[in-house]
Design brief:
It contains two helices and 15 strands. By secondary structure, it is mainly beta. β13 and β14 form a beta hairpin.
């Protein structure tokens, strides 16, 4: 339990800047009205972005379906979680964009935007995890984007599908972006427009 608290504490302290536009709520099977959809499942229903803690590994991106309490987790193979799950929420959904990127061009493509940070890969203190998605086998699936120093030039999207963890080189990345270049809550100016 101390390790769970440690990981959630790291995320809360290290990534507090993101809390100006998004925050996390405990997920108990009910999707709150301020949850940010991440895509659609094969039947056209909304699916949501979440994070789940995996003991001994860290906090990873998960896809949440309304009414389901267990999530699939891409964490060094396929894993599942049914507790320690949070769902991404915002009061400002208009400040979120999905931008296309690749494993090779990730660093160049994020100039001027802020990737949404979800968790932390604690295996070898690898680093933060961002939110990505891909259209795969008829549905939009979210997963981990892994911009670790050791993966520079090879920042892939990892996602679970049919109980297997998969990686792709072409995907969309969730970013926070304020179109007029001025972030009203924290007063920063974005130098690059998309």
């Amino acid at each position: 339990m101390r390790q769970v608290a440690f990981y959630f504490c790291i995320i809360s302290v290290c990534f507090a800047a993101g809390s100006d536009y998004y925050y996390w709520r405990e997920f108990t099977g009910v999707v709150p009205p301020d949850a940010l959809p991440g895509g659609k499942d094969a039947d056209g229903r909304d699916a949501y972005i979440g994070e789940a803690y995996i003991h001994g590994h860290g906090i990873y991106v998960v896809q949440i379906y309304p009414g389901e309490k267990e999530v699939a987790v891409p964490a060094y193979g396929f894993k599942t979680a049914s507790f320690n799950i949070k769902i991404l929420c915002t009061e400002d959904p208009e400040f979120f964009l999905w931008i296309q990127t690749t494993a090779k061009n990730y660093e160049k493509d994020i100039v001027g935007v802020e990737p949404v940070t979800v968790g932390y890969d604690g295996v070898g203190n690898s680093g933060v995890v961002n939110v990505g998605r891909i259209f795969y086998q008829g549905e939009v699936l979210v997963g981990d984007v892994t911009p670790y120093a050791s993966r520079k030039g090879n920042v892939q999207l990892w996602f679970p599908f049919r109980k297997v963890e998969r990686a792709v080189n072409f995907y969309e990345l969730l970013v926070v972006y304020v179109p007029n270049g001025i972030e009203p809550r924290i007063g920063k100016v974005n130098a690059t427009m998309i």
